[in-house]
Structure formats: C-alpha cells, structure tokens
Amino acid sequence: MPLQFINTNLNAIRSLQTLRLNTARTDRAAQDIASGKKINTSSDDAGGYAISQRFTADILTGQRADQNIQDGLSMLQVTEGSISVMSDNLQRIRELAVQMANDVNGADQRNSLAKEMRALLDDMNRLSTASQFNGMNVLDGSLTDAKVQIAGGSNLATNTIDILGAFAQLDTTTLGLEAIVAPTRWTPATLNDIFDGTTTQLNSSERVLSYLGDIDNALTLINGQRSTIGALSNQLERAGSFLGLSNLNIEASRSRIVDTDIAKASAEYTQAQVLQNAAVSILQQANVSNQAALQLLKA
Question: Has residue 2 been placed in a domain?
C-alpha cells in the first residue's frame, strides 16, 4: 500500500500546479485572440517588444514624413497655379502688343489696348504679393527656407528635399516688364498714355515691337520656373513612392513580431482548455484520495 498522508496531499498540490499553468496558457491564448496581438506587454516577449516599439516609431515617423511630402506637393501646386495665371496674362499681353503694333489701329484703339495691358501687368504684381501657402508668400522673394523633411533622420542631405528654387520673385520688375523700351521707358501705370494723341510719344509701333522681346524673355523666365516646379514635384513624388514602400515593409516586419496567428492561437487555446479541464478532474480525484487514510483510522 502506498504511503498515506493527511496534512500533505502531494497529488492535489501537483494537480493544482498543473491547473494553474494550463489556466495561464488558456488566458494567454484567449488574450492573444481577443487583442489580435501576441505581444501585449513587455513580459510576453521582452526582445520582440523592444524591436516592435522601434518599428512602431519608424512607422509613425514614416507616416508623418509622407504627410510632409504631400504638404510640399500642395505648396508647389499652389505656386504653379499662380504662375499659370501669370503665364496666361503674359500670353494675352503679347497678343495685345501684336495688335497694338499694327498701324491700322488708331490712337483710341491703341489706347484701349494699352489700358488692358496695364491691368494685366497690375494683376501680375498683385499675384506676386498675394500668392501664399500656410501664410507664407511664395512669389515675392521673401521665402528663405523651404526644406521638406522626408524621413526621420537628422542628415539634411539624405532626409530633406529643398524646394526653395520653386519660389523665386516674380513681378513685372524682375520679369523685365516694367516699361516699354526706347527711347523712353514707361511704367505700367502710364502705359495707356503711350498712344494718347495729346502726347508726343505716339505714332511709333517700334516701341511695342521692342516690348515684344521683353515679353518673350518674361515668358522664358516663367516657363523655366514652371519647369523647376515640375522637376521638384517629380522628386517629391518619387520620394513619396519610396517612403510608401519602406513603410509597407516595416509594417510587415512588425506584424510578424506582434500580430497573432489566429489559427495557431486557437489550437493552443483549445489544447490548454482541454488540459485545464483534465487538471480540474485530477484535482478532484486527488482531494478524494486522502479519504483512504480515514478508512484506516476507522478500521
């Protein structure tokens, strides 16, 4: 006959310990399934938790950097929109200049055309000072810094894109359109006086023909500026594509570390639950087994 004890029920203690372990496994599997994560606290996997937190930081940084890129693209689009209007104005100014140079037009007609030209030039000056993004003027030459942070590092060469070149000063002065050329330069404010019959500066289409050269030079400058904006936009878009791919790979890496494999967790939960029920049954039997000692006392 095996040894019989009353104070110490070894079978019950062993069964209780097993029950606790299986209950912990059941609870852990249930938590993994419910949360969708196999690392819910650092105690679940200290090393994996540290790595996943670093990945999380990289993902959040990447998302912010992607938003920075989108903001930079928006800034370039706003700037190009204003320049596009300036380009349309210049095209119209060139058309008017060609019409003004035609000697078939009388002084009154030329004066009316010059007034429209002056209004278009004034509108270009207005656009130069009024074009803004987030409260910053983009076409008056006041902008001095325009670096887009495209990553989380501190190295400017590899983590920023400088788009300052898109924001040059564009007004009638810098575009060389401040006046009609030779023999006397006329400001846009008095442009309509050129063909005023009461002045001595009329009857000459040569001034307007000379001004066509200024208009063409201005168009060249504006088209060059739009090309710069296009190149910078493409650069930002490529950076955004690379960043999106990088973020995707980091997300996948973090997922492999922290996300729950539902099929595996369900199998573990079922197994732990069966073992838990078995431990409860054995514990019940162990609690009854010590009654044999009482039978000996009765004898």
Answer: no
